[in-house]
Specification:
The structure holds two protein chains of two kinds.
Chain A (H helix, E strand, L loop, with lengths): L7 H9 L5 H19 L2 E4 L1 H16 L10 E5 L26 H8 L3 E6 L33 H8 L5 E5 L6 H7 L2 E4 L20 E5 L2 H11 L17 H6 L13 E5 L9 H16 L3 E5 L7 H16 L18 H12 L2 H14 L4 H22 L5 E5 L15 H5 L6 H6 L3 E8 L5 E7 L5 H14 L13
Parallel strand pairs in A: 2-3, 7-8, 7-9
Antiparallel strand pairs in A: 1-3, 4-6, 5-6, 5-10, 9-11, 10-11
Chain B lengths: L4 H10 L9 H15 L34 H5 L5 E2 L2 E2 L7
Antiparallel strand pairs in B: 1-2
The chains are: A alpha/beta, B mainly alpha.
Chain lengths: 495, 95
């Protein structure tokens, strides 16, 4: 039976066996998007004609025997990644009419791998937010319950994958923008090591933290996409030149002891991730997931990350500082919005930026400008960079005692749209468990591990040392082979 | 430290962002709350700790001195708000 709603690996098998063509899958998903996305608002651009042309090309390549593992697989890109010839808006009025003149590196890599781009996904403006409510194109809704947020900032990609509108989508993660929405929507989200995937063509928010990554329903699918996205790019000075593991092949290898495939894996449990402030349903789902990891052969190690509680304040100095610098390029001269009425040049800048940016983006620009301004740089920016090192040192010490660190991805499950919209500090604290990995530059994955009593998905986060993606993916894959949380689908919300 | 309304106006000017008189109080209240969070850092002992600017602490790699960019002026200017004869148009800056 052909199933166009299968996972990436499931679709790849059906395409290879000629049970389905890429055109058939793409058509089915475009129809599904047309029927269901009115109630979710997960896409800001749908490129039906482009997708069908790419699907035809993929089918032709397969007929000639030139297909790879991702040939003909429909995907979506977060609208912060440049896609040549298509709008790239960052969900901002500033770029509402901007058409990208070139492809981001990860977009080009996935195109070359034969994926079919169906559209661009909604997000918090310039990736600043934890709920995808800060979009010029309106909020994204959580497919599990449309009164809830999907998390953010990559909420459109997360909602689209959770609702099975596409089997996989890219995201970017600066402080949790892949993992937290993956957790809120019950899917798998991987933030790779900083430097693993090129930032070329990713519209910059905070350059020392921004990391392109991927959403899918399984760790195996994330492995397939990461293998195509990762790799050195000399156009990004922070792109790391080191070999890319064939992640999916590593996952397919059979374990020495099939009953205990995680034997030997030491899982660190930092006291700071299991304390107060974690919702009771989240805590019990994560505790059950740790039991499952033990059943699969892993051992758990109690440990401490004593400075990790400072991660949120460190982040809210460093990220806005870098953002204020990066977003100075939006001045109404070379691209994007320009105010209709203005006096002199400075007035044009001020009005253009006041009209083009939404309130959260403005707040972060103001915070960043302040902490970098004369007389405050040492007290804020330098201080934050010093504490950033202390947090990275905590992780280094922890990974001497364990192979991966486990905990909840977020302290709660998804909250209601509007519930935190007027309280930025409350909103920032949703990322308390995800920000530390960005500050340390290390990889982390969120995988579904249960539901709250009222049916909201819960995520387990696994964090590893730099370049240990395969270790995270393997642990997640073994967990998913033994559990079925990742197979649960939200109700079909027909608009 | 306490952030004043005058600070908000000064920073908005530095950031080239117009903050209206009616909007300033709300902006000020929210920024003050954010700095309440950030000010936790002032209590941390960081004597002798080198700042971490970049997670991998790598250095900008060198490449060969070769031409890698081509003239894409028309393409790049096609997305500009106002262009004439290959030049970006802005308000008069020299009287």
């Amino acid at each position: 039976m052909a199933d166009p709603l299968a996972t990436v690996a499931g679709l790849a098998a059906q395409l290879a066996a000629r049970k389905l063509s890429s055109v058939e899958v793409t058509r089915a998903l475009l129809d599904r998007i047309a029927a269901l996305d009115r109630s979710l608002n997960s896409f800001v651009t749908i490129d039906g004609d482009g997708a069908l042309a790419a699907a035809e090309a993929a089918d032709a390549a397969r007929a000639k025997g030139e297909a790879g593992p991702l040939t003909g697989i429909p995907i979506a890109h977060k609208d912060v990644l440049m896609t040549a010839g298509l709008p790239t808006t960052c969900a901002s009025r500033m770029l509402a009419n901007f058409v990208a003149p070139y492809d981001a590196h990860v977009v080009a890599r996935l195109k070359r791998a034969g994926t079919v781009l169906v559209g661009k996904t909604n997000m918090d403006e310039f990736a600043m937010g934890s709920s995808t409510e800060n979009s010029h194109f309106g909020p994204v809704r959580n497919p599990w319950n449309t009164a809830l947020v999907p998390g953010g900032s990559s909420g459109g990609s997360a909602a689209a994958v959770a609702a099975r509108l596409v089997p996989a989508a890219t995201g970017t993660d600066t402080g949790g923008s892949i993992r937290q929405p993956a957790s809120y929507t019950g899917i798998t989200g991987l933030k790779p090591t900083y430097g693993r995937c090129s930032r070329y063509g990713l519209v910059a928010f905070a350059s020392s933290l921004d990391t392109p990554g991927v959403f899918a329903r399984t760790a195996l699918d994330c492995a397939l996409l990461l293998a195509a996205m990762a790799g050195h790019d000399e156009r990004d000075a922070t792109s790391v030149d080191r070999p890319v593991d064939d992640f999916a092949v590593r996952l397919a290898a059979s374990a020495a002891d099939p009953a205990r495939p995680l034997a030997g894996l030491r899982v660190g449990m930092p006291a700071e991730f299991f304390g107060e402030g974690v919702d009771a349903d989240v805590a019990s789902a994560v505790a059950a997931a740790l039991d499952e990891l033990r059943k699969l052969g892993a051992t758990t190690v109690p440990l401490a990350l004593p400075r990790v509680g400072l991660a949120v304040p460190v982040y809210y100095v460093i990220a806005p500082a870098e953002a204020s610098s990066n977003l100075s390029r939006f001045d109404g001269v070379r691209y994007g919005h320009r105010a209709a009425e203005y006096g002199d040049l400075a007035d044009m800048y001020r009005r253009t930026r006041a009209e083009g940016f939404g309130p959260e983006v403005k707040r972060r620009i103001l915070v960043g400008t302040y902490v970098l301004s004369h007389g405050y740089y040492d007290a804020y920016y330098l201080k934050a960079q010093q504490v950033r090192r202390l947090i990275a040192d905590d992780f280094r010490a922890a990974f001497a005692q364990c192979d991966v660190i486990a905990g909840p991805t977020a302290p709660t499950a998804a909250f209601r749209i509007g519930a935190q919209a007027d309280d930025p500090v409350q909103m920032y604290l949703n990322d308390i468990f995800t920000i530390p990995a960005n500050l340390a530059g290390i990889p982390a994955i969120s995988i579904p591990c249960g539901f709250t009593a009222d049916g909201r998905p819960i995520g387990l986060q696994l964090t590893g040392p730099a370049f240990a993606e395969v270790r995270l993916l393997e642990a997640a894959h073994r967990f998913q082979q033994a559990t079925d949380w990742h197979r649960k689908s939200p109700p079909e919300n027909v608009a | 430290m306490t952030l004043s309304l005058a600070d908000v106006a000064r920073v908005a000017d530095l950031a080239r962002l117009e903050v209206t008189a009616e909007g300033a109080a709300d902006v000020h209240a929210k920024l003050a709350a954010i700095f309440g969070l950030i000010d936790q850092l002032s209590a941390v002992d960081t004597a002798g700790v080198a700042p971490l600017a970049h997670p991998l602490e790598c250095f900008a790699p060198l490449r060969e001195d070769a031409v890698t960019e081509h003239d894409e002026r028309d393409l790049y200017q096609s997305v500009a708000p106002a262009v004439e004869h290959g030049l970006y148009l802005v308000p008069r800056v020299v009287e």
